[in-house]
Amino acid sequence: MTKRDAITFRSALLPQPLPLDSGRELAGVVMAYETYGELNEARDNAVLVFHALTGDQFVASEHPVTGKPGWWERMVGPGRPVDTDRYFVVCANVLGSCMGSTGPATQGPEGEPYAMRFPVITVRDMVRAQAALLDVLGIDTLHAVVGGSMGGMQALSFAANWPQRTRRVLAIATTARHSAQNIAFHEVGRQAIMADPAWNGGDYYEGQGEGGKGPEKGLAVARMAAHITYLSEAGLTEKFGRRLQDRDAKSFGFDADFQVESYLRHQGISFTDRFDANSYLYITRAMDYFDLAEEAGGRLADAFVAARDVRFCLVSFDTDWLYTTADMREVVHALNAVAAPVSFVELSAPYGHDSFLLDVPALDRVVRGFVG
Asked: Which residues are catalytic?
């Protein structure tokens, strides 16, 4: 049992089976979530924050597994850009993930973990589950939806499919669909997991596989490969360059000789303590399937026809080569085509895709000004 398995999460049972894009229904869906601030009497001050691929509901509170601060604590809280003195912030663990919401590790109808028998899900399915959670919480219309990376995909999907349920949409460092390069990087990670003997076809939850721990080596490699895409070349060079570890530089070998190697290995190993390999497979596949234009019949603008009354703000970063400024401009042009009110800004930051999670004061000002 991992530390994650021993935690009791705040959660809600969805009262109705959840219809999925695959045509299947998923009964007994549980959504784990956290809230911050107070819902006002009119119930119209709620902000829904969507997390990224490896994120979770602990946006502004200590992570129960790692003990680290919330992943966006600098952005969400009293007096912060998303001010919990004014807004009731909801953040839910996405469908298919592993921090309390229903996913591959959840016990299925037959009394065993779903594993790879869990149904294929999409980003729209994730958002559909969160809309159902809002129903449980008694929230009809949101002040805003906010998200970066995969969270931004969810924000755009929410606007396209449930435009009547939010007044504002803030999408940061995201895209309307994955490129072939995006899919290729994800596939490397998936293959690393499935090549690990301990993956055992996904059935590793009951002590099966190598050591009963699951495909930790494969998951660590997947995280290492993905983490490279979150950084910029300039940032890596500034932080690590070609510096060697503090030991005899002449003792060449296949240990972590370079500091950047040690950093990536640490990222991979620590990730396995808090994430589930099968969830990684399902969520990355959902991101690869994401294509708002395809959902709308092939024209991206048509995805936002019903969202003309929603205010949009889109943000990109000049060093983000995973989801580029060109990707964001495509969404801006689609919103312009249907006369939806949209603001767009490209911010300068040295951190690459991860800039939305790090100390970029200009982003703070944008978020405060738009959500405010």
From this structure: 149, 320, 353
